[in-house]
Amino acid sequence: TPIGYLGSGKGGGVELTMVSLIKGLLSLGHKIILVAPEGSSLPQDCINVEIKHVSGTDQLSWQHQSNDADVKIPVDGLLPKLWEVALDLGKRADAVLNFSYDWLPIWISNYVEPEIFHLISMGGVSEIMRRLIKDLSQSEPHRLAFHTYRQAADYELEIHPEIVGNGF
Questions:
Q1: pLDDT in tens, 45-56
Q2: How far apart, in whole angstroms, are the C-alpha atoms of residue 4 and residue 15?
Q3: Of 55, 74, 89, 117, which has fewest CB within 10 angstroms of its CB?
């Protein structure tokens, strides 16, 4: 998430979800490269994860903006820098997983290789995000997952949502 380094607590549930998913994937033998803000760290039981640290200016959280807020990416923004690294690494990966509830990674999904898969962690708090998720649902519905059916109901989805509950 581009709103704070992992371990700062600013990412809220995203941090907990991501660590849980990382532990599950490691237990299945997957190799993981994590692209995260400078200063990020993982628990000791995730030592087999390579972390690529990226520096830049944090994004504003969609949670703290109005429903009709415009997309804003700061000068020297962390979000595009994270995605430059992730997309480069993704050329040699099976998949890129996005945990951030942000405009850029969802918008670029139809335009880049490799495939980006999104775990949407929030309800529809922004009109532009609801529209963007609806559009991706129409073109590439298999790239979206949600935590609950209630949360997914905030979006106009093309197909029945994929649910990935917490606690994997």
A1: 998 999 999 999
A2: 10
A3: 55
